[in-house]
Amino acid sequence: MKLGIILQTNKQEKVWNVLRLSITALKASHQVEIFLLSEGSELENIPDNQNFDISAKVKEFIELEGKIYACGTCLKMRGKEESEVCPVSTMSDLLKLIETSDKVLVFG
Fold first, then answer.
1. Cα–Cα distance between 7 and 10 in angstroms, integer?
2. Phi, psi of 10 (to 5 degrees)
3. Distances from the Cα of 71 to the Cαs of 1, 38, 41, 65, 82, in angstroms?
4. Is 0.90 surpassed by the pTM of this model?
5. Which of 7, 55, 70, 96 could share a disulfide with 40, CB 3.0–4.6 Å?
6. 68 DSSP β-pair partners
7. In the chain, domain spans
8. How far out from the chain centre does Cα 10 lie?
9. pLDDT tens across 13-60, in order?
10. H or E, element range at 59
11. What is the CATH class of 2-107?
12. Shortest CA distance to 72 belongs to which of 54, 90, 58?
């Protein structure tokens, strides 16, 4: 199954749980693509703490061949540029993710 996940928050616990679910799905041989929208585009700047190791989860997700895309407009509004972890994407890319996914989950 292919999961499309739209992440619209920068809240540590919510992001951490999205990554945990995504990693679990990848380990169960599913495909997972995450599209960062709104506050979700701040993923790389969310600090780790003793409860939420977000950077480690992002690294594990990518190592398991999960894909992350970031809304270019959302990045630009925050003065950010694309990165290796979060390449710039468009609404057309989000539409394609939705069209090609078996299930779409939205977390915000």
1. 8
2. -115, 15
3. 24, 8, 7, 20, 9
4. yes
5. 7
6. 34
7. 2-107
8. 11
9. 999 999 999 999 999 999 999 999 999 999 999 999 999 999 999 999
10. helix 54-63
11. alpha beta
12. 90
